[in-house]
């Protein structure tokens, strides 16, 4: 095939379809600081990408259009509020490209589940449109657009494991010395991330909240690939707020713990619950027990770290 020079005219690079695969995340540590004057919270956020993926496929179209398939597709907004649309529009704006593109999302990441599904689609659409339009944005510029779209979007692009500070968007890549086996229990309904932060603020009114810092034990456990040590170090400051808004999650956590999970925690703002298992076999056993417990909608078994957004 011929290689055309890079253009910023929106004529593209001769490619007419690009698919990007993007992983979900679990927060193995989510330390939340006091609310800032702008309403955001400072975070120390240790992200681990796991092997549940959305795929974003882009093709040229007369105007921006979004479609979505998957079990939760009916809960995904198909207008300009969709993070995939916002990503495409921002890239087009910066490069003066016509944003005529059909974005198709094959959604496997639970919606409003605390696994950064919307963020994954934003990062995926960005990388896909960059390839489709031949805009050739630098890694730095892509990360800058991601940070503008949302706190979790830069990590969706990068994948692996990373420490996020600030709102979570300033990333430091972390070494991971092995594979961690996870089970995710997906709840009957979603939880709104802003609502969980509001509940966190309500529950902590009048409380002096320390500066959020990453746990050295946790970073060491990741670096060693030591699941037992990681299980002892995981923490999520949003868990009490998520449980307060969704008390039945306590039953799911208990079911997974009783089934032999090394650790059980709410993933991010929830309501997905995450169970760290000693190995793949133990993960399958935890999953079987969770399925039989009737305390969740679906159970998924996977591992991490997973690679970030990748053109497939
Ligand atoms: P996080 O873990 O980053 O807090 P989440 O996984 O809990 O996010 P998302 O699935 O990202 O939640 O979606 C939260 C809300 O964002 C949805 O209820 C939906 O209204 C909106 N949204 C915007 N774009 C998307 C998208 N591409 N996919 C899913 N939801 C989207």
Folded structure, characterized:
By secondary structure, the chain is of the alpha+beta class. It folds into two domains: 18-173, Ribosomal Protein S5, domain 2, CATH 3.30.230; 180-304, GHMP kinase, C-terminal domain (Alpha-Beta Plaits, 2-Layer Sandwich). Helices cover 34% and strands 27% of the residues. The protein has ten helices and twelve strands. The chain has helices at residues 83-95, 117-133, 139-149, 153-158, 193-203, 216-224, 227-233, 239-245, 249-258, 280-293, and strands at residues 18-35, 41-60, 65-69, 101-106, 161-165, 170-173, 180-186, 235-236, 263-266, 273-277, 298-304, 310-311. Strands 1, 2, 3, 4, 5, 6, 8 and 12 form an eight-stranded mixed sheet that branches. Strands 9-10-7-11 form a four-stranded antiparallel sheet, sandwiched between helices. Adenosine-5'-triphosphate (ATP) binds next to α1 and α2. Residues 76-77, 81-84, 105, 111-119, 121, 152, 193, 268-269 line the site of adenosine-5'-triphosphate. The active site is at residues 25, 152. Keywords: ATP-binding, Isoprene biosynthesis, Kinase, Nucleotide-binding, Transferase. Its EC number is 2.7.1.148. This is 4-diphosphocytidyl-2-C-methyl-D-erythritol kinase.
